[in-house]
Each structure stands twice: as structure tokens, then as C-alpha cells.
Amino acid sequence: MDQKKITNMEVKKKNRNDVFRYICKNGMISNPDISYALKLSLPTVTQITKELIGQGLVEEKGALESTGGRRAKALAIPENAKKAAGLDITKNHINLILTRLTGEIQNEQRIFLPYAPKDAYYRKVTQELTAFLAENGCSQQELLGVGISFPGIIDPDRELIADSHILGVQNLPFSHISRFFSNPCYFYNDANAGAYAEGMQSEHMERFFYLSLSNTVGGAMYSSGRLEQGKHFRCGEVGHMTIIPEGNACYCGKHGCLDAYCSAKCLTDQKPEDFFSQLDQGNPDMAKRWEQYTSLLAIAVNNIHMVLDCDVILGGYVGSCMGDHIKDVQEKVAARNTFAGDSSFVRPCHHKMEAAALGASLKVLEQFLEQV
After folding, report:
1. For residues 319 and 339, is the Cβ–Cβ distance under 8 A?
2. What is the pLDDT of residues 91-108, one digit of tens each?
3. What is the pTM (predicted TM-score) of this model?
4. Residue 312: which H helix or E strand, with range?
5. Helix or strand or coil: residue 89?
6. Dihedral (Cα; 226, 57, 78, 37), 10-degree rounding
């Protein structure tokens, strides 16, 4: 009897969760539409949406167009429903983003703020976040939490940033940062967050490797809605994969790492978009740099593909800005492909500069959706 009761409760919770996620994903929808799509009885769906309306998570918005009978009531997520903030911390900037329960981006902002492991820095970050939320009409009560993206190894078991060479911190407890924020904080690796944003908002890609080409090189493995973490939470750290033995010095202290050849800084000290603008204008110096860069990047991409046999998504500053120049990478990868001479598995990222902040905010939303 007890086991049956527990099972029934689990079924009800799953149905409720499925209905709510379906409304979040599809926008204006009706009970009959939900019933048909999820193969649930109309009375079950109606009862669930009634409960969600009572909680302020769903609202009625008039009626949908008639298909021959009585017009069905239109259901949607309210504009003032719960929201999530994303904060991407980099060496020189912070990226802020605000997302609705639907995963839609309400607004985003990039602010120049060099990182410093000091209380004053985090106070300034919280001030900027508070102002950003106020400008977008988001109250503390509406905010589910803040997803914080860091360039480094995140250890959720020990609840600390284990190592961030680029920011110069080690074994930094989450609590040292979260104490400055009024809302719950959740911490993620920047490449993992970017990969999560790419995967969760894609209709087609179930498994891929996300290669982040920013001021540091990182990566993440995404598979069917989940990120592979690895035994020591270092899965995907291809930035420190050796490309040229005893090659250029890397900031990690080793030599020949991919990061030493394919970070955005290897192309230019300017904004990546400015580099590609000059490349498009035929600047010979930029063309030479791009030729060298893509030759080594193609080796890395081909190696990743040979090991994992999946799509490789190019993200980060370089992946976001390269546009049609991805063909240069694809051609070189195709020439190295042992099995097919094909490179259609190399794709540009969908989300641009805000990817890590977006992914961090989407992880916060997922925490909430799992409990509905």
C-alpha cells in the first residue's frame, strides 16, 4: 500500500513537471493541446494547470483561435513570474543576464571590471547586479538565484573553486563569494555553462563537444541534457592538451598547450570582432595570423572528433565572431579526417558572448523546474 502510494505521488509529480515544462517551452498553449502532446487525460491536465495558476506560475491569457468548436483558454507563463540571473566572471569583464522561466533572455549587459580576489571587487559586482535587476524591473522576490560562471575547475563536492589559473585563485570557497549576494548562488565552470546554454536551447544536438575559444581555451562534453563532469571535475579541459611538444609556454606552467596557440589572445589584443573585421578587409597580417591559428585549431578539433565521434561546437570569443570564416577551419579539419574527408560536424555556436552567463542562469532555472 505504501509503495503504491509513493508511486502514485511520483507519477503525479512527473505529470505536473511535464505539463509545466511544456508550457514554458511552447508559450501560448491550451489544455487540449497539452493533453494531446503529453498523452495525458484532459481532466488531469486541467487540474494541474489550475494548481499552477493558483501558484502564480501560469496564467490565462484570453482564448486561442477556434478550430471549429468552443475556443480553448490560452495558457502562458506570466511576465512577472520567477526569473534567474546569470553572472559570468572573466579576467577583465563581468557579463550579466536575466532570463525568464521560459529560458528567454530578458536583457544582458557587459561591464568592464578587472578581477581582483578582494571583498571590494565582489561588492562592486553585487552593486552592478542590483542596478541591472532594478533597471529590468526584477525584484528580489522574483529572482530564483544567481548562476555564477568562473574560468576554472569547479568542485561542487567541496563547494569551492579548486583552481583558476587565469584569475589567480585556488581553493576559493563558494561561501566567500555568495555571502555578498542576497539570493542563492550556484557556481559553474564557464565552458560547462556555455555548453549547457548551447545544448538546452537546441532542437537537434543531443551530444556534442563545446570548444570555448576565449582568453583561455576550455571545453565541455554535453550529452542528452547533461554535462559530463569527470572524476575530478576536469572533463573537457582541452586547453591544456599538448598540441606541440615543448612548444610555447602556457600560463599553467607547461609548454605546448592548446591554450598557448588557440586562445583569443593568440589572434589579437583587440576585440575579436575587430580582428575579423580587419581580416574581412584583407589585412595581410591578420590573414597570416588566421592561417596559423586555424592550422593548429584544426589539429585539436580533429583529435577531439577522433576520440569522441561527435559534433564539435566552436564557442567563446573566437567562435562567436568568426562567422563564415568557420569554413576555413572546416576545410582544414576535413583534410585531416581519416575516415570521411568530411567536416560537417564542426559547427559555430548559437549563443555568442553571453553564452556562459546564459548557461549559468539556465542551470538556476533547472533547479527550480525540477521541484515544480
Report:
1. no
2. 999 999 999 999 899 999
3. 0.85
4. strand 311-315
5. strand
6. 60
